[in-house]
Write a structure and sequence with these properties.
three-stranded antiparallel β-sheet; 404 residues; 7% strand
Length: 404
Amino acid sequence: MNLLDECYVKAEEVLLRNVTKFGFKASFKYYNSVWARDGVIACLGANLTDNEKLVEASKRTIESLGKLQSETGQIPNVLILNEEGTRVEKVSWYAVDAVAWWIIGVWNHFFTTQDENFLREMWPKLKKAYFWLRCQQNDDSALLSSCEAADWMDSSIARRGKVLYNNCLWFKAVECINQLAKILGETEVYNHERIKEMINVFFWPTERSINMVADSGFVWRTDWYEESIHPEREHYTNFISFEWYEGRCDVLANVLTIIFNIADKEKKKKIIEYFYKKRLSNPYPIKVLNPPVWVSSYAWNPKIDVYRPNQVHNIPFQYHNAGIWPYVGGFYVLALTKSNEKKKAKTELKKLAEANKVGKEMEWEFNEWLHGKTGKPMGAVLQSWSAAGYLIAYKAVMEGEIVF
């Protein structure tokens, strides 16, 4: 068996080991919990397989999170299980992206199984989840605002205000729920094309953007925002807060603009060329931030790392600060495939398989993250979303099956 096929088999095995009565937990050996974002990404990979146990676990993941939806419509960020995995001991909230991922997960599971009973059962919860997200709009921009660390970068590398990543998911979640509404004969919930337009206005700034940002009511002066306008811009900005913008490249968010068709053809080309030029997939796919943050700033508070375990320290090229995350690598390969970079996509798929094979404890470790320069595995092992990311990439490159 060649490396690519063997990695596919091993990825399925990791997901099977992480199945619980509540769905996919994040890691067999470390995270005894069902996370909304990790879990839904696991579902996206699992639903591409022919394994009935994995598809059923996907359904349980969505249902378990939905059962604990708050009165206002929020989906939990994480369900923390007891040691035996037989009950939920604690529920954590806070994250914005968890709610959007859950909506996407319902959409994906329905289109995988065509289970209309499942969809009708989820529909009232979907509308509540949408309403909760809509309430995160605090101006007329059509975009969500997020508090600090309300997404997958929930560490001392923190975003706030208008976060590109969360708004990409917001766009996709609304597009998904509108598609499901049409199937059920319901009214569309919101104009997702306006969200796309405003993402491009805010996060790829041009002279046109200045007045539109001011008119949205998001800020009361825009002289600082004008500094974000660059004629030779190569990627979207990371986040925009009150009187501050963070211009680094959030790799996953920029990848999502390609996968979700938020970026037009010209922007997609520029983003991919930027990835190549900066060698962001070396030694493995792919570093999640570029350039890394080297000194204390609005985007990184290193004092927080003093109180955090070593494996989640954000010194340069570690963890969220330009560490390599294989699950993001899977979406990156998918983006290359959708952009007709098929030869490059297969090369990167091989590197992604190598990243999943290397380990500090075992072969085929499917580690959470690796050092951005050395490629040394440094996170938790047997991660569901690392395995699922590979399945998503493999299916796209080898079989032409595109999850989005």
